[in-house]
Amino acid sequence: MNEPTTLRTISALCQHDLVPREKLGALAEVASRYAVAITPAMADLIDPADPRDPIARQFVPDARELEEKPEERGDPIGDERFSPAEGIVHRYPDRVLLKLVNACAVYCRFCFRREMVGPGRGGLSPKALAAALDYIAGRPQIWEIIFSGGDPLILSARRLKSVVAKIAAIGHVKVIRVHTRVPAVAPERIDAALVRALRAHGKATFVVLHVNHQRELTKKAQAACARLVDAGIPMLAQSVLLRGVNDDVETLGALMRKLVECRIKPYYLHHADLAPGTAHLRTTIAEGQALMRALHGRTSGLCQPSYVLDIPDGYGKSPIGPSYLSEDGAAVEDFNGRRHIYPPR
Ligand code: SF4
Description:
By secondary structure, the protein is α/β, with parallel strands linked by helices. It has 11 helices and 11 strands. It binds iron/sulfur cluster. The site of iron/sulfur cluster (SF4) has 11 residues, from loops.
């Protein structure tokens, strides 16, 4: 019997009952604009009979992706402006993104880099990688390197090991952070060789899992994360607040609790970026703040991510509340919404 493979075309999605035949034409247009890939692990989770399935909503193309709003932009977080060398984004003084590859295991319908990622987009050539590492080596203020992309964990263990070894030789870099969806969407990739490849003597490696719904944390995904954590690699999680996926407090709370049970600390809850054709998946900031307030009231501090917005055009990430302190600093609100006076000094 053939091994299940990643679904990459609208007709493949149709054959698996993930899109209806009558939508083939409109969705083929979406697929010609934005990449499509759904791994077997994620395809297995989708209930084709449920029109509100939160996994399908993240990965199955939607005709509304062709509707662009004036406020949306191709490079919503302004990577381009802060890219002094191919593959590098240097926005904050002490850290850089290193975009090793521009492809992913899955393509998220809300992706903030959807204009830049896709199959065949390739990654850094050896020459470009050498130039990127020279840039880092020449700047002693760079303390942390964030592997981003695309998804760095689609690279082979051999390739990752070679990059990590080169970074290990740069004395002022102390932390390697890997942003990935792979432990959840393709858990079989997290094998012993890949785990070993991420570790470097004298450097702290963190893996930050992008996950948006607790159903993505299957038994196999949990085992993949455990392989990383058991090897001494701490894990954090980042999630995107998405309409119809995780925009209610029960779903969001269940995700955060499941993460902590897997020894993964929720780190960021991102307000969805102004990526083209994604308005149907965005919430308002007021809705996000209300959710954070509800989460604060009912779940452990371990389960609280920071709700953040990447300011359009590259001005960086800012926490966007909610705030519990009154504007004059004289009162603070508790988790039940009651106000309490606090002495000014
Ligand atoms: S894994 Fe990340 S970079 Fe890749 S499509 Fe999803 S959001 Fe975009």
